[in-house]
Structures are given as C-alpha cells and as structure tokens.
Amino acid sequence: MKRSNYKRLFKLFYGYRRWFLLSIILNIFFAAGALAIPALSAALIDYGILKGNFGHVLDIGFLMLIAAVIAGICQIANAAIAVWASEYCTHVLRKKTFEKIQTLSFGNIDRFRSSDLLVRLTTDIMNVKTAVMQTIMNLMQAPLLLIGAIIILHFTAQSLMWIIVSLLIIFTISLIIYFVIVEPAFSRKQKKIDGVNKALRETLTGIRVVKAFVRQQYEIDKYQGAINELKIAALRPQHVMAYLMPTVIAISFLGFGAVYYFGGVNVLSGEGLLIGNVTSAVQYILILMMPLMIIAIVLPFITQANASLTRIFEIMDAIPEISDPINPIQVNPDTVKGRVIFEHVDFAYRNENGEPEGEVLKDINLIAEPGETIGFLGSTGCGKSSLISLIPRFYDVTRGKVTIDGVDVRDMKQSTLRSIIGICLQEPVLFSGNIRDAITFGRSDMTDDEMIVASKAADVDGFVKNIPETYDGKVARRGANFSGGQRQRLSIARALATKPRILILDDSTSACDVATEARIQDAITDMMKNVTKFIVAQRISSVITADRIVLMEHGRIVASGTHTELLAENALYQEIYESQLGSGLHPGGAS
Ligand SMILES: Nc1ncnc2c1ncn2[C@@H]1O[C@H](COP(=O)(O)OP(=O)(O)OP(=O)(O)O)[C@@H](O)[C@H]1O
C-alpha cells in the first residue's frame, strides 16, 4: 500500500490539522469512557451489590453514568468532525482535480480519456471520502480500545489473560485469512465493476445507434456477460465478509464461556478473582473484539481509497503537454494581421508514454496571407484536422514551426494566441444554457448587436427567430434539442462572435445543405475580409470559393491552387470533383 498517498492527502489538509488533533483527543476520551465502564461495573458488583453497600452502588453508578456521557458526547463530536472532514476533503479534491484538468492540453486529455476522468472525479473521490470518514470515526479509536482493554485485563484478571490471548490469536488468524482472500478478491471485483460501467456507458451513449441497427439483443448479451462476471467476482468477497461477523460472534461466545467457566472456578476456589472481575472480563472481550472488527471492516475501504488516491494524484501530477513560455513574446491581439506560416512542419501524436509515435504530418510548408481563405481537401484521416490544430497549439509540432506574423506560436501566451483565433471544431459541442450563452461563450462582454451580426452570418438568426424565446431559448446538454446542422451553425456563430484574426472551420458545414453552406460562406467572406480563414472540408462545395485549395494525402500537401487551377491540372482533384459534383451540380460558381 502506498503510504505516501495518505501523507499527501494529509498535507492537503495541513491547515486544518487542529481538527485532526481534536479528533484524536475526542477518541482518547471516548476510549477512556468506554474502557472505564466495565471496570466500574466490576467495582459496583464486588463492593456495592455483593457487600450490600447502597452508597457505593449510587456513587459507582453515578461514575458509570459520567463515563457513558463522556464517551457518548466525544463519539458524537468526533462523528461531526468525521462528516465535516470527509465532505471538505471531497470538496477540495473535486476542486483541485477539476482546476487541474482545465490546465491540461489535448494530448493529456487524449491519454486520460474523458470517461476515465469522469470516474476519477466521481467514484474515486467518493472512495476517498468514505475512507476519511471511516478512519476518523472508527479506525482511530481501534488501537486505543485494543491496547487499553489488554492493559486493564492484565491488571484486573491476570489469571484469565491466557483466554484473552488465545482469543486474540484465533481472531487475528481469522483476520489474516480474511484479508488474504478478500483483498485480491476486492480488486478483482473493482475491475469487473469498471467493466460493467464501461459497457453501460458505451451502450447508453450510443443507444440511438443500437436501436437504429436493431442491436438491442447483442447489447443485452454483452451487458449480461459483464454483470455475470461481476456477480461471480463479487460473490467471494461478499461471502467472506458476511461470514466475518458470525465468526467474531462465535469466537466471542467461546470466550465468554471460557471466562465464565475458568473465572467461576477461580472465584469459587478463592484464587483471587472477584465476581465483578469475571463479568468485567467478559465486557472487555467485547471491547477487544470491537476494534478488530473495525479494522476488518474499514481496511478494505482504506485499500480501495489508496488505489483511488493514486488515480486522483495522477491527474494532479500530470504535466500539461503544452505550457506557456517563460518569457512570452508580447503580441497585441488588436494589431495582429494574421499571416500564418507552416515551415517544414512534422507532427505525430504521442503514445501512452508521452513519446511521439507514427508521423501524421510530414514536411508541411504553407503560407496563408492575411485575409486569405485556404480550403483543405483530402481523404479522411489524411491529417487535415491535425494540421489546423497546430495553429492554436492544441498540439505542438514535432519538427519545424508554425508562426503568426512571424512569431512562433510556442513563443506566445496561450491565452493571447487563442484570443486571436476563432475555431469551430469538427464536433459542434454546445453547453447547456440558452442560445445567447452559447453564442457569446468565447466573449461574454459582447453586445446583443454584435451577437446578432455573428448569428446572421452563421445563418442562425433565421431559425432562432422561429423559437418563441428567440435568443433566450433553451440549449439542452450538448445541444441535443437542435439538429446537427443547427448545432454546426450555432458553433460557427460562436467562433465568428469572438471577432478573430484567424478563423478555423473544421468540417463545420458538413451537416448543412449546400444552399445554407453557400449563404454562410458568402456572409463570412463579407464579414471577415481581413481575417485569415482555414476551412477544412470533405465536400468540394465547402471550399470551392476559397482563394486557395490545399490538397492533402497521407499527411503531406500534394497540390494547392484555386479551384479552377486544380480542376485544370490536378488528376486527384479532378477525380474528387467528378465523384462529388460531376453529375452536373455546380454550386458556388464552379466552372
Ligand atoms: N487524438 C489523436 N490521437 C492519436 N491519433 C490521432 C488523433 N487524432 C487523429 N489521429 C490520427 O491522425 C491521423 C490524421 O487524423 P486527422 O483527424 O487529422 O485526419 P482528417 O484528415 O482531419 O480526417 P477526417 O477528414 O476524417 O476528419 C489519423 O490517422 C488519425 O487516426
């Protein structure tokens, strides 16, 4: 078990160490109260009841009451600290991990995977919360009760100590067997739970596809397989855990019998023990068993939380692949012209170990002049999206450089760089809220007029006006209440509304009909005359009016020119043109 995880966790709460100290003090008082009661009860029996001394009965009874009240109050106060500390711990971990995730770059997110991050931020943090709660509430008092009970028994019923020691040995052996079986079984069960969650997440997020392809039975069988495996994996630890309590009770009963028998013989033969000593010894057996039970119940939580902490700290320790330079070159976004140059750029995504693997872009050389519109065409997977993702530094080049107005993008502050770029990603992700929030996402200080200009250019204004609440209309999670084309138009409006110097549209009109696409292109050309525009597309119609069309194949630029030039000279372009528009459809001024 990695102890350093708990050390680190404690360091996070170092400012609140007084509360932990208070919890320790409360636990000590609780243990003192709990341990005093059997000893007092022995005195009450031996010197009060058996001697017929009513005054002693009253005095000792009163002391027992005080001990019980102290133990009770301390236990309640400690429970309050446990609840507070575990909630606070959850809050801090949630906040810190979420803030950290915001600093991670695309490469880091690729490696963690969003679904995995979700589990770390929810289940793993909850595991830590349970462990913190159990530790403060139960685990900290266990050694105090254990040691205290043994010491008292040693002084009050030394002749019965062999029974206590035998019980402890039997019980410790049972615990060891329990851990040997339960520990690995628990981690196997956790793996199966992960498997069930994965299957569930995949099926539920793709439920429409499942239904569309009538694959319900296949998915049911797949899920059934996963939950069957979980059932088998869960049965073993669950059985062992269920047997633990009866085992402890059985061992305790054995202990009671032995103590009453041997204690009774001792009392009757006048070897030194009093009746009270015998009855209190039975109560101490119960107190002894309690901490051992607590350890048995709580340790699996601690082990589980330790694994969870490792996963949480992995996020906190992740080094963002992209970071700001120590001495960034100051760039004024208002005066940026938007001349973008790719110089001998190679690029590869990084593998699990963070090393570049398999070149995706090879020796890219490209100059985009301010105000120019460059279209990118090429078969799927040829590297178009990867190429444009290097401009806002979603990823860094592995060789060469990308510059804007002569400044390497790696020498700028990321916030400045991104403020001059308006980007519309391939997947038009929208956040829940209203339409106004969705469009002004990149610049919350814009006026309604500015927003409407962007909306009109992206052909959003038309359909928004048909919504009764217009721009206050609701956007559901991920924009689920809009069609694919509407979502794309909203995300184009969001990119335009930031008034960028460089605009990147990655296959952003693929779900729009050709007429809508042409309207958007015309409006963008009008509105963004001086803005450098990069338009990635699958359809020729999306880039036909571009100043230059760059044709890509297997990560390389294989040709570039205007539509007319490429159509006249390039066989690949002619082939694409023929396959897409050759049947006589010539929109947007195709020759
Ligand atoms: N995040 C990623 N991690 C690893 N490899 C990736 C990642 N994104 C893309 N790739 C790989 O890089 C190559 C180029 O992908 P890219 O998305 O740039 O192509 P594209 O031309 O934009 O394709 P499409 O037109 O289908 O969007 C592909 O082989 C793809 O598998």
From TrEMBL:
Domain ABC transmembrane type-1 span(s) in chain numbering: 21-304
SMART domains xrefs: AAA
Transmembrane segments: 20-40, 60-85, 136-155, 161-182, 240-262, 282-302
Biological source species: Methanospirillum purgamenti
Gene Ontology cellular component annotations, sorted alphabetically: plasma membrane
A Pfam match: ABC_membrane
Protein's recorded name: ABC transporter ATP-binding protein/permease
Major subcellular location class: membrane
Residue ranges of domain ABC transporter in the record: 340-579
Key words of the record: ATP-binding, Cell membrane, Membrane, Nucleotide-binding, Transmembrane, Transmembrane helix, Transport
Record's bilayer topology term: Multi-pass membrane protein
Entry's Gene Ontology molecular function annotations: ABC-type oligopeptide transporter activity; ATP binding; ATP hydrolysis activity
Compartment(s) where it occurs, according to its Swiss-Prot or TrEMBL record: Cell membrane
